[in-house]
Design brief:
Elements lengths: L1 E8 L5 E9 L1 H6 L25 H4 L3 E3 L4 E3 L3
Antiparallel strand pairs: 1-2, 3-4
């Protein structure tokens, strides 16, 4: 299991973990690009490399390949 979260300071100045998201390492390994961003994974653990509407992929430098129905990038 890989845990993603944010650390913020509470009112007393103590670090508190928020926005916790645990993702199976086996799900991350299934991603063709091994993307380590929690928002890249759906609730069922599948990645969004096959979602043409996932516009984060454009920001990250990937392009949509209509032949394979996948986001591709320079590896």
């Amino acid at each position: 299991m890989t845990r993603f979260s944010k650390l913020i300071h509470d009112a007393q100045g103590k670090l508190v973990e928020t926005d916790i998201r645990d993702i199976q390492q086996s799900d991350i390994a299934k991603c063709p690009h091994y993307i380590l961003m929690p928002e890249h994974y759906r609730g069922d653990g599948s990645c969004k490399c096959n979602d043409p509407n996932n516009h984060d992929m454009v920001e990250w430098g990937y392009t949509w390949d209509a032949k394979t129905n996948m986001w591709t990038g320079e590896e």
